[in-house]
Amino acid sequence: MLTAVAPVGRTAALAESRVAPDFALKSTDGRNLRLSEYRGDPVVLAFWGSWCGPCREALVTLEAIARETGTPVLGVNLDGSADRAAAVVRSIDLTFPNLVDGQQSVARAYDVAKLPLTLLLDREGVVQASWSGAPVDRAELIRRLETLRDE
Amino acid sequence: MKPDMNESTRSKRVCRACLVLALLLPVFAAHAESVAPESQRVDQDVQALKKQLIELNRDLFRLEEELLYPASTQVAVFLSVDVGTFFALDAVTLKVDDKEVANYLYTEREVQALHRGGVQKLYLGNLKAGEHELVALFTGKGPHDRDYRRGTTLRFEKTVGAKYVELRISDREASLQPEFVVRQWE
Lengths: 151, 186
What we know:
The structure holds two protein chains of two kinds.
Chain A lengths: L2 E2 L19 E4 L4 E3 L8 E6 L4 H17 L3 E5 L4 H10 L6 E3 L4 H5 L4 E2 L1 E5 L5 E6 L5 H13 L1
Parallel strand pairs in A: 1-7, 4-5, 5-6
Antiparallel strand pairs in A: 2-3, 2-6, 4-8, 8-9
Chain B lengths: L1 H67 L5 E8 L6 E9 L2 E7 L2 H8 L4 E7 L3 E12 L5 E12 L4 E10 L4 E9 L1
């Protein structure tokens, strides 16, 4: 059972410096997307559930970062219902793709224990930072994104 | 007076610079001559090393495949698309002897690659010699953008050699419908 918990700061779900496992899922707009197709750019991966309050906060922050920096952000919804995920996407006006992990197979591969979980992947798909059980630290994420872009 | 002095100083400086340049030019030229072949040789070595690495990687890949999937038990399933105007591929589920062995979701880019003639290795596994059943379930959009789901079955005999199966999505022009063909290769 996944839990949304009070902020605990940065704790790793999938260990940092590990290559993020590849996956393909259907997005709320019906497209199939594969993580490895984003290689070459730093990517933000955000696991969320519609029942998790801090997740919405995290999604709003990530939407602002995606618009501001042009960074690809991929949301992964763990509700098991594409309709419910799509309703949340519409309600907070998310423009980045949100994928539906109905079987929670991707969540298992990433050892997701707490939501929200935000991972920052570098150009090679290696986990460089993670924020688990708390909304992402906007300033730190932007700073780390800039560092990754300059590399 | 001053302008004349400046003029003379400038010409002296120019002369000195020319002299220094003339003296150093042969030194630079000799250095460049010695550096050029050296860097060229290093570049050639790096290229040769890269080539060896690629060959080694290929040999290791072959060895791994031979060890993990010996010909006596090897079964590989490939997917290809021929034209495919009547079917937009979304996913393929593959079952061997009623056990799901592959479930692949295709992105737009992957579908485009298949349309350009790409062949995908969908499954590689081991099966004992004897009779087996392979079921492939294709989902996607059919004619008139309708949801389309079609299964195709192949019963085959696994012999001592490696077995290759090709799943091919093509167009049946006469009925304006997609066609799912299964072919076996020994």
